[in-house]
Amino acid sequence: MKTRRDFLQKLAAAGLALPVLSTMAKGSAMPILDTTPYDGPMLRVAIMGLGGYGSRVAEAMQDCKKARITGVISGTPSKIKDWQKKYNIPEKNCYNYSNFDAIKDNPDIDAVYVITPNALHREQVIRVAKAGKHAICEKPMALNAAEAQEMVDACKKANVKLLIGYRMHLEPKTLEIIRLRKEGKFGKILFFQGLSGFRIGDPTQWRLNKQLAGGGSMMDIGIYSVNGARYMVGEEPVWVTAQETKTDPVKFKDGVDETIQFQLGFPSGAVASCLSTYAMNNLDSFFLDGEKGFAELKPATGYGPIEGRTSFGELNFPHVTHQTVQMDEMAEMILNGKQPVVPMDGAEGLKDMKIIDAIYQAAKTGKKVPLSR
Amino acid sequence: MKTRRDFLQKLAAAGLALPVLSTMAKGSAMPILDTTPYDGPMLRVAIMGLGGYGSRVAEAMQDCKKARITGVISGTPSKIKDWQKKYNIPEKNCYNYSNFDAIKDNPDIDAVYVITPNALHREQVIRVAKAGKHAICEKPMALNAAEAQEMVDACKKANVKLLIGYRMHLEPKTLEIIRLRKEGKFGKILFFQGLSGFRIGDPTQWRLNKQLAGGGSMMDIGIYSVNGARYMVGEEPVWVTAQETKTDPVKFKDGVDETIQFQLGFPSGAVASCLSTYAMNNLDSFFLDGEKGFAELKPATGYGPIEGRTSFGELNFPHVTHQTVQMDEMAEMILNGKQPVVPMDGAEGLKDMKIIDAIYQAAKTGKKVPLSR
C-alpha cells in the first residue's frame, strides 16, 4: 500500500489527476486497475456500430468502474447475438438503425456511443438527442462544420450532453506536457509539428469511400494532428495553408485525400507543420517547441503506450487502456458534470471540423485560409 | 592493425568509402586521423574571410592530409597578423579585398575558399576565377539563382573548379542512408521532413542584414533542409509552397525571414515538409520515410557528431570533423577530378538557389510555385 500511496502522491504533486488507475500490482512496476468496490452512479452505454473500433471500446469497457455496456445498436443481427452473449445484454436493449429511436423509452440506457462511418454521425447523434439520451460520438464528429453545428444545436436543444471520443485528452503524458506548457516551462511556444498517418489496407473499406468517410486521411488520422496542434500549442489557429498529394488515384478516388500537408498559424506567432497521410507507415509523432524547452510524444496518439519526453527529461506515467479511461471519465462528465482539462464536448469537435473544412479549402484553392476565432 | 583493417573492410563492404579517417587508436573505439606519411599532391588554399566559420575551417584543416592553408585574404590587418603567426603564412601570400586579384601570380595558392557574407560571394568568386584559381564557396553560394548562374559561368569560362561547402555530402551516416535508399532498402520514398533552425543571437550581425545576407534564416540554415530534401529523397522538386511567419519585426527586418515553413513536391509523388527558422532552439533533424522503412538523422547537420538510425538499426560510423573531411575530399576533387557521391559543385549550389528563390516567391505570393527540372 505504501507503494501505491507514494505513487498517487507523486502524481498529485505533479498536479496530474490520473483518472482511473490506482493500485499497483504487488512487486510489479505496472499499475493495475482499481478493483475496490464502487458504489457511485454508473453510466449505462449503448454502443452504436459494432465494427472494429466499437469492439475495442467494448473490450476496454470491461475494466471500467463507472461505465458499462447495457445496449447495442447494429444493422447486423448476427453481431448483435454475439455481443448479447459476450456482454450479457438483454434482448430488450438491442436495436437496429430503423428502430433505435425507441431507446427513448428504455430506462437501462443513459448514453449512446456512436461508432459508425463518419457520414452517419450527424443523423444518428441528432436521433439519439431527440430520444433524450446523451450522445458520445467518435471523431470526426461529422463530415464538416455545418453538420457538427447542427449536432451541437440538437443536443443543446434536447438538453443532453454531446461528447466526442478524444481519448488523447485524458492521456497522462499528453496532460503532463499541457500542464508544463501552462506553467510556462517551455516558455513562449513557437512551433508544433504533428505527423499522423499510416498505410491504409483494404481499398474497399468505408474509410476510402467518399460518401461514407467524407474525405480521406484527414478525416480519420489527420484530425489527430489538427486536434493535437490545438491542445499542445494551447491556442486556436487563425490561418491555415495546405497541400495535397495523390500518388494512387485508383485507391484514393476523387474527394478521398491520400496525403495532405497543412500548416497552421496561431495568434502568438507560433506555427504548426503537420502531415496527414494514408500512404506512409506509422507516422505518429508530436513535437512542441518553445523558447525554453521542448516536448515530444512518439507515438503520440496510438492505442498502445504513448512515449514522451521533454527537454527536462523522460515522461514516466503508466499506460492504461485509453478507451477504459475515456469511458470512466465520460461517465464522470455526463453524470457529475466533471470538466476535463482539455474539452471533449461537441463545441470542441466543431472547432476541429472548422479547421478541417479550411484545410480542404486551402488544399483545393492553394490559398491561405483565415480562420475566425 | 587488425581492428583497423576489419573496420575498413566493413566500410568497404558497406559500399562506403570513408574519406580521410583511418587508423583506430589502440584499445579505443574512437578513430583518429591517418598519420601515415602522404606523398601525393597537396591542395594549397587561401582562406578569404577570417571570421568565425573561416577560423573553424582553418582549425579543421590542421588535420588535413591533402589540403593546407597557404594564404589569407581579409580586410582586417590584425586578423591577418594573427593568422600568419598561427598558420605560418608568409607575407607574400596575404591579401586584402582590394588587391587579391594579384593572387593570379601567386604559385603558392591553388584555390580560394570564400567564407564571407553571402552578398559578397558572387563578385569574389568571379574575381577568384578570373585570377585563374579554383573557387570554394561557402553556402549559400549567392543571393539568388541569377547570381549563382553567373558564378558557374565565370568559373567554367576561366576553366577553374567551383565547389560549394556542402560538408554534409561527405558525412558517413548521411552517405549510408543515401546508399540504402539507392539500394531500395526504404522502398519507394514517400516523405522527407527537415527541421533546420536555431535562435540567432546578436541582432547586429551580418546574417540579419538584408544587404549582406540576402535574406534571413532560409539563406543560412533553411538551406540545409532544401539541400537535404534533395539528397535524402534523391529527386529534384517540381513545386514548392511556403509560409512565412514573423514574430519579431524589430530583430528580423524587411526581407530578413525569421521563420519559413516550406513544402516540396517531387516527381514520384514524394513530398517534403520543412522548417527554416532563426527563432527556435536547435532544430536540426531529417526524417526520410519510404514504403519499406525510414531513416532519421538528429542532429542532421550540426558540426558535432551526426546521430542516425534507420528502421533497420542504428548507424554507427565514427565522427570526423566535417571540415577536415571536406577539405581533404575537395583536394581530391580539384586535383584528381574525384566525383563525390552527392555533387558539391556550382551546378549543385545553383539548384538550391533556384529552390530558395521559389520558396521566397511562394512565401510572398502565397502561391504554389512550379520548378523547372
UniProtKB/TrEMBL annotation, chains A, B:
Keywords annotated in UniProt: Oxidoreductase, Signal
Domain GFO/IDH/MocA-like oxidoreductase as annotated: residue spans: 178-295
Lineage: Bacteria, Pseudomonadati, Bacteroidota, Cytophagia, Cytophagales
Name of one Pfam family that matches: GFO_IDH_MocA_C3
Any one GO molecular function term: nucleotide binding
InterPro entries named among the record's database cross-references: Gfo/Idh/MocA-like_OxRdtase_N, Gfo/Idh/MocA_domain, GFO_IDH_MocA-like_dom, Glc-Fru_OxRdtase_bac, NAD(P)-bd_dom_sf, TAT_signal, TAT_signal_bac_arc
Assigned protein family: Belongs to the Gfo/Idh/MocA family.
Start and end residues of each Gfo/Idh/MocA-like oxidoreductase N-terminal domain: 43-166
Protein's recorded name: Gfo/Idh/MocA family oxidoreductase
